[in-house]
Structure formats: C-alpha cells, structure tokens
Design goal:
Elements: H1 3-14, E1 21-22, H2 24-28, H3 36-48, E2 53-56, E3 59-61, H4 72-80
Antiparallel strand pairs: 1-3, 2-3
Length: 90
C-alpha cells in the first residue's frame, strides 16, 4: 500500500469532530519505517493534495472529520500548548 494511502486510512479511523487536529509527532507513529525527511515530504504532499489543511507550522486539520468551526481555534491553542494556561482574545 502506498504510504500516503496508509497514512490517510489510519487518520480517517482516528479522527472525529473533537479530534481532528494533528501534529507531525501525532502522525509519525503511523509510518515509523520512513526517515524524518521522507515523512516530512509525505506530510507536505498530503497537505498540498488537500488531505490536510495546514493551520500553522506543525499543526494540521483533517477536514473530513467535520470539525465544529467554532472550536477549531480553541483546540488548536490547547494542542500547541497543552500544559499551559492559554488566553484567547478575539
């Protein structure tokens, strides 16, 4: 099976509206045999082909999970800084 297909099959099983944001570290364990360079290239290609939306450096949104748009920013902040007190001013 092609690596991008393998990655997307696992992500589609894991993703839900509440768990639709992924970091490269989250996804890395899906393809442990690939080098870091090959994995980063694969992840960039997956974003370019529309499988993921790159939110910011190191954070990808899987839109097929149909996330609640009002909560994506909240989840993104808590994903980027999980052990910190986060303040958002909109």
């Amino acid at each position: 099976m092609q690596p991008i297909r393998q990655l997307m099959d696992v992500v589609s099983e894991l993703a839900s509206p509440q768990a639709c944001l992924f970091t490269p570290n989250d996804l890395r364990s899906i393809l442990p045999d690939h080098s870091a360079t090959a994995f980063n290239t694969l992840l960039s290609r997956a974003a370019r082909e529309g499988h993921f939306t790159k939110i910011c450096r190191g954070l990808y949104l899987y839109e097929k999970a149909k996330p609640d748009r009002g909560l994506v920013l909240l989840h993104a902040v808590s994903k980027l800084r999980p052990l910190a007190l986060n303040y958002l001013s909109l």
